[in-house]
Amino acid sequence: MLENFLIYALLGGIGLAMIAGPLGCFVVWRHMAYFGDSLAHSALLGVALGFLLSIDLTLGIAGTCIVFALAIVTLQQQRRLATDTLLGMLSHTALSIGLVALSLMGSFRVDLLGYLFGDILAVRPQDLVIIYGGGAVALIVLAAIWRDLLAITVHEELARAEGVAAFRARLVFTLLLAGVVAISMKVMGILLITSMLIIPAATARHFARTPETMALLAALIGMLAVALGLTASLRWDTPSGPSVVVAAFSMFLLSLALSAVRGRAHTVPTR
Amino acid sequence: MTAETTPLVTATGICKFFDGREVLHDVHIEVRSGEIVALIGPNGSGKSTLARILLGVMPPNAGKVVRRPGLRVGYVPQKLPIDVVLPLPVSRLLTLTARASREQMEQVLDEVDARRLIDADASRLSGGELQRVLIGRALLRHSDLLVLDEPTANVDFNGQIELFELIRRIRDTRGCGVLTISHDLHLVMAATDRVVCLNHHICCEGMPGTVSKHPAYLQIFGPRAATSFAVYTHKHDHEHTLSGDVVAPGEGHAHEHEHDHGHDPHGHPAPDTRDGGGKRVRG
């Protein structure tokens, strides 16, 4: 018999994997893993701001992530610093400001570890509403910009010459990423969010022949990783978020081995 | 009738600055239906910038671009920056921004001799194959104007000749205008109706034979350019055999060589495979 909190955790994780998979495919295709990571780091500043302004934390995090994302996009226009330098600087600065701000607000007892690694077992029904509501909106928006986003991912100028509103697609995608980071904060935590975006997508690559199947598979693989990770966490009493990541990575290794075997099966007859 | 005589695109007085440096100065250029225009110039002369401005993906600082109303532009970039992590079959590449049935796709791929690539992964195409697929993509969109950015940059010599044959054939059957950008001289000039030589401003412009003797052209490309290009000018009075030898028309006929050369990557061992990763036996 499953406890309620386990069902909530499972539902929360699965809801997250459903949106993280397709969105993560674009993170992988557009080489934005570091961007996602930096976005998540800035989320801690959002936590501090949320406390400071006594607003809903998810709202605080979403707001901070959006401002951070827009700042990066703007700063990228200048050519003096490479994007990875910019991201490395800003993400850790945001993280540090968040930590400093939290420590200054001494009267609050903040579960820092919970924000860094998430606490999927603490997911409540009201969190599920946020995850599924936000996730559904994000999926609908992603579906709406899918063609444009894919076109600019393949070749931005080509897409623009053919009438694609490239800036809009990029902006909406960035905002989506910020939003998904915000709603997954409680489940996966700052340090593990990126893994839910990129590991299922990277695993799905080995079995997909079109972008759409890769997105679908990434969602399914993410869900499976959540189920496996939570089961393992229950069984061996390991931390749940990291267990999900380990499960996802194990599936990635398995996919690597499978594709190697399949690759050999394909090459042998030609020799 | 007016549609025939109105240029597809006309740019006048185009100026473009990057960081205070003038890359294009008072450039005039136009392309009409059914003509192949080659935009040539050394590296960094502003060719790609001008093409971007004509395509409408970059605004000029001064001057204006007038497109014929309803003009459909087909852009053929030099390469695609996609890597293998994005699974993209050619059929999906063709329909990135336009919808098409499989029959329609097979039809345009037939036109560019690339039908067998329809399910191939776009990230694994050779330079020549990619160019064909991208040209097919422009045809699928019923483009009135093709803009090709250095179409031969990643293509071997035989492939380059075939590519220009293809471009000319498409111009003949579709009647579209073509603008090719190149720093590669002789082949482009041989396959072109009009050459525009650009080095931040238009240096000279005209028929290939005239431009190649123009002092401004010689100054930019050097006297050797004039001689090296001469070999390939008389495009209709000779043909090329497999090895590239020139033969009289009829002896090596017009279309079979396209099959003989093959666009099959496995058919052509790359010239450098001897050095690549081979085990060396030490004596």
Backbone structural class of chain A: mainly alpha
Overall average pLDDT of chain B: 75
Low-confidence stretches of chain B: 229-247, 249-283
- Rounded to an integer in angstroms, the radius of gyration calculated over CA atoms of chain B is 20 Å
State the distance separating the first and last CA atoms of chain A: 55 Å
Task: State the distance separating the first and last CA atoms of chain B.
Answer: 75 Å
The CATH architecture designation of the domain at 4-189 in chain A is Orthogonal Bundle
DSSP helical segment count of chain B: 11
Number of strands of chain A: 0
- The CATH C-level name of chain B is Alpha Beta
State the helicity of chain B in percent bands.
25-40%
Helix/strand/pairing category of chain B:
alpha/beta
Morphology call of chain B: globular
- Tell me the strand order in the biggest sheet of chain B: 5-6-7-3-8-9
DSSP E strands of chain B, number:
11
Query: Stretches of chain A where pLDDT falls below 50 for ≥5 residues?
Result: none
Question: At the fourth CATH level, what is the homologous superfamily of the domain at 4-189 in chain A?
Answer: ABC transporter involved in vitamin B12 uptake, BtuC
- What is the assigned CATH homologous superfamily of chain B? P-loop containing nucleotide triphosphate hydrolases
User: What is the subunit arrangement here?
Assistant: heterodimer
